[in-house]
Design goal:
The protein is mostly helical. The chain is about 80% helix and about 0% strand. The chain is elongated, with a radius of gyration of 19 Å.
Length: about 200
C-alpha cells in the first residue's frame, strides 16, 4: 500500500488462499481431537483455544488481502503522499500490529500468558491512532481535494488495520484462557452494560 508495489500486493492476495486452506485443515484437526480423544481440563482448553485462534488467524489473512486489494486499486504512478502517511501515523500503527502478532507467537511458543497480556497495551495505541485518523484524513481531503480518493483508501486501510489489532487481542485472550483458565472475553464491556432494577 505504502510503496505502490502491485506485484507484492498480488502475492499477498495469492497467499491468502493458502491461509484459507490451513484454516480448514486445522478446524478438521481440532474436531478430530475432540471426537476421537474427548479431551478434558487443560487439553480441552487447548483444543478450544486453537480452534478459535485458527479463526482469528484466518481473519488476519482476510484483512491483509483487503489491504492488498486497496493497493491494486490505487492510481498507478501516484504513491501516497508522505504528508498523509506521517499525519495518520500509519507506519507507527503497522509497527504495533507486527509487534502484536510477534508477541502472540512468542506467548504461544513459550506458553507464557504474561507475554500474551502485553498485546492488550499495544492494541490501545492502535485504537488511538485509528480514532485520530478520521479527523486527520478529513482535513487532508479538505486541503487536497484532488486526492480525495487516496484519503478514502487510506481511511479504509487504517480501519482494516484496527480490526487486525482486535483479532490479535482475541488471540491473546484465547491464549490466556488456555494457559490460565481465565475468560477475558468481553471483560471491558461489563461495566457499561445496564443493570436490572
Amino acid at each position: 500500500m505504502l510503496s505502490g508495489d502491485r506485484e507484492m500486493a498480488y502475492r499477498v492476495i495469492k497467499r491468502e488462499r493458502r491461509v484459507n486452506t490451513y484454516e480448514l485443515k486445522i478446524d478438521s484437526d481440532c474436531e478430530d481431537l475432540i471426537a476421537l480423544y474427548a479431551p478434558v481440563a487443560v487439553d480441552l482448553r487447548f483444543v478450544l483455544a486453537m480452534y478459535k485462534i485458527n479463526t482469528n488467524l484466518e481473519r488476519l489473512g482476510d484483512f491483509a488481502e483487503s489491504i492488498a486489494r486497496f493497493a491494486t486499486n490505487m492510481p498507478e504512478k501516484e504513491p501516497i503522499d508522505a504528508e498523509l502517511i506521517r499525519a495518520t501515523r500509519v507506519e507507527d500503527m503497522l509497527k504495533e500490529l507486527l509487534d502484536m502478532i510477534a508477541l502472540a507467537q512468542e506467548a504461544f511458543d513459550k506458553e507464557d500468558s504474561e507475554i500474551a497480556s502485553r498485546i492488550f497495551l499495544k492494541d490501545n495505541l492502535v485504537d488511538e491512532i485509528n480514532h485520530n485518523s478520521t479527523r486527520t484524513i478529513a482535513q487532508y481531503i479538505e486541503d487536497h481535494p484532488g486526492s480525495a480518493l487516496t484519503g478514502l483508501y487510506m481511511a479504509g486501510v487504517i480501519r482494516k488495520m484496527e480490526r487486525f489489532g482486535d483479532h490479535c487481542t482475541n488471540i491473546a485472550e484465547e491464549l490466556i484462557f488456555y494457559l490460565d483458565a481465565k475468560v477475558l472475553k468481553h471483560m471491558g464491556r461489563i461495566e457499561t452494560e445496564p443493570t436490572e432494577e
